[in-house]
């Protein structure tokens, strides 16, 4: 394995260690220790990446850090829903998926790219189907698996065509010319590779798996897919596009415009929170694709800022959704597939959750003093410098369209309806009491018997969700007021 793969190797070793250690753990600590071990492995790998122990460029190091943070967030968000009988399986799958993402993001050869993509894909297929008793989860995972297998086949065919035209399995150092011997074969191969990676980014028209898969997974799994998969796939796509023939670039324009507009328009019709986040992710993937049109360092800097902001804002929204689940009234059941308004109304029972939600939605809308605003300004500037006026206008139009579902969600959180599950605005849910001094959380939050799989450490987990939300809020604002440190 090349030197830049050592941090990812630690994640793989951590996954095996968690599985082996589960055999010796006492039953009463089987949920706590695997999660803590998984967090330790993620922190170690992330520290190696961010400390510069891997000889990679700054953008790839940023992606490594985002993958590590997303994996840690996934473990924290999914903690209460782990199967007490086999919690190590979930932790190991998250670590293996993060390992694949690290290999994919840092790949400099076609075999490494394919191995990383398959490792993360196989792990995510099982994670989406983690709730084995839930038929909807099985259906979403099956759709994801079928479409993902087709995309992997196309990507492998593209790699074969590129290898046949270039004669090497390593990425070329310079863009491959579209003219001359093998030029058309190379262009076709690169186009198929782009299609395979576009599937992982949920770019339109390769997005059909995303709403069902997002809706099928637990909150932790969905947040992990929404952030880490996009970051790793975009890093790999940037490496591929950098050496692709110029004939492939017009296709990127089409994918970017289609994703921005179809994602934002599709979000208008969504009534489920996770499906809304799926369509929002499509539009945001289209924004990132703008940075690849001119293949300049300035554009990649813009993509880095926006990718970091998107990761913070999206992870924060899922942390707020977890707080909303914690504020579920007794007997109402967990928020496995809840409507947008129901998530907002339940979040209103928590004193901090509505304001955190407003901040993250403001960032996704692109309002000032948030990282989303700075990232979109930088992307617009790079598009205008590349004379891609159509892409700039598409970003503005998509942002304006998405503002409606975003702010509808924010309004419902700040002013829950009179008929809502939580009663009048400002009133906690019936039967709700405070947890750790926080009003509005249900009485059964500690060792709840109403929601399967909730851990006895639930109050600590709720505080961890709140801390995660505030950390994401801090990053969102920091990127909005002092982005130069990240740009350097």
Could you characterize the architecture of this molecule?
- With 488 residues, the chain is mainly alpha-helical.
- 69% of the residues lie in helices and 2% in strands.
- It has 18 helices and 2 strands.
- The longest helix has 32 residues, at 135-166.
Summarize the structure.
The chain has 18 helices and two strands.
Categorize the overall geometry.
globular
Mean pLDDT: 81
Q: For the terminal residues, how far apart are their CA atoms?
A: 29 Å
Largest sheet: 2 strands, antiparallel
Query: Which sequence of strands runs across the widest sheet?
Result: 1-2
- How large is the radius of gyration? 22 Å
Order of helices and strands: HHHHHHHHHHHHHHHHEEHH
Total strand count, please?
2
Helical residues, percent? 55-70%
Report the total helices: 18
Percent of residues in beta strands: under 5%
What structural class is derived from the secondary structure elements? mainly alpha
Poorly predicted runs of 5 or more residues: 330-336, 418-457
Highlighted features:
488 residues, mainly alpha, two-stranded antiparallel ribbon, 18 helices, 2 strands, 69% helix, globular
What layout of secondary structure does this protein have?
Elements lengths: L5 H17 L9 H19 L7 H21 L8 H20 L3 H19 L6 H32 L16 H19 L7 H8 L2 H25 L5 H19 L5 H17 L7 H30 L13 H8 L5 H13 L5 H15 L3 H26 L17 E4 L2 E5 L15 H24 L2 H4 L1
Antiparallel strand pairs: 1-2
Helix pairs in contact: 1-2, 1-4, 2-3, 2-4, 3-4, 3-9, 3-12, 4-5, 4-9, 5-6, 5-9, 6-7, 6-8, 7-9, 8-9, 8-11, 9-11, 9-12, 10-11, 10-16, 11-12, 11-16, 12-13, 12-14, 12-15, 12-17, 13-16, 14-16, 14-17, 15-16, 15-17
């Amino acid at each position: 394995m090349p030197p830049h793969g050592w941090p990812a190797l630690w994640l793989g070793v951590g996954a095996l260690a968690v599985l082996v250690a589960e055999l010796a753990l006492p039953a009463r600590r089987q949920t706590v220790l695997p999660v803590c071990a998984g967090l330790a492995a993620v922190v170690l790998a992330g520290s190696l990446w961010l400390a510069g122990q891997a000889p990679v460029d700054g953008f790839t190091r940023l992606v490594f850090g985002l993958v590590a943070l997303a994996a840690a967030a996934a473990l924290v968000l999914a903690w209460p829903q782990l199967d007490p009988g086999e919690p190590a399986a979930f932790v190991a799958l998250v670590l293996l998926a993060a390992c694949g993402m690290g290999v994919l993001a840092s790949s400099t050869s076609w075999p490494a790219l394919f191995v990383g993509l398959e490792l993360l894909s196989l792990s995510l297929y099982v994670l989406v189907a983690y709730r084995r008793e839930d038929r909807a989860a099985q259906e979403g995972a099956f759709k994801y698996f079928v479409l993902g297998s087709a995309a992997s086949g196309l990507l492998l065919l593209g790699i074969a065509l590129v290898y046949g035209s270039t004669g090497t399995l390593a990425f070329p150092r310079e863009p491959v010319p579209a003219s001359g011997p093998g030029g058309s074969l190379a262009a076709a191969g690169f186009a198929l590779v782009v299609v395979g990676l576009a599937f992982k980014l949920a770019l339109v028209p390769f997005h059909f798996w995303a709403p069902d898969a997002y809706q099928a997974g637990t909150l932790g799994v969905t947040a992990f897919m929404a952030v880490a998969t996009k970051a790793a796939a975009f890093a790999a796509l940037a490496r591929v596009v950098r050496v692709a023939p110029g004939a492939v670039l017009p296709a990127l324009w089409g994918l970017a415009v289609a994703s921005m507009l179809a994602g934002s328009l599709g979000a208008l019709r969504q009534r489920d929170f996770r499906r809304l986040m799926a369509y929002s992710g499509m539009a945001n993937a289209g924004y990132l694709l703008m940075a690849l049109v001119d293949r300049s360092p300035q554009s990649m800097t813009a993509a880095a800022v926006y990718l970091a902001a998107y990761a913070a804002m999206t992870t924060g929204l899922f942390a707020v959704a977890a707080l909303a689940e914690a504020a579920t009234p007794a007997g109402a059941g967990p928020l496995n597939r809840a409507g947008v308004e129901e998530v907002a109304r339940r979040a209103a029972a928590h004193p901090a959750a509505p304001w955190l939600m407003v901040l993250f939605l403001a960032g996704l809308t692109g309002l000032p003093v948030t990282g989303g605003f700075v990232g979109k300004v930088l992307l617009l500037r790079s598009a205008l410098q590349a004379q891609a006026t159509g892409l700039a206008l598409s970003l503005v139009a998509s942002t304006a369209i998405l503002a409606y579902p975003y702010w509808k969600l924010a309004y419902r959180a700040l002013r829950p309806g009179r008929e809502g599950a939580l009663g009048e605005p400002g009133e906690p849910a019936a039967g709700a009491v405070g947890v750790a001094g926080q009003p509005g959380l249900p009485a059964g939050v500690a060792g709840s018997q109403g929601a399967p799989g909730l851990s006895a450490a639930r109050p600590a987990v709720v505080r961890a969700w709140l801390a995660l939300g505030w950390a994401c809020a801090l990053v969102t604002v920091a990127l909005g007021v002092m982005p130069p440190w990240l740009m350097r």
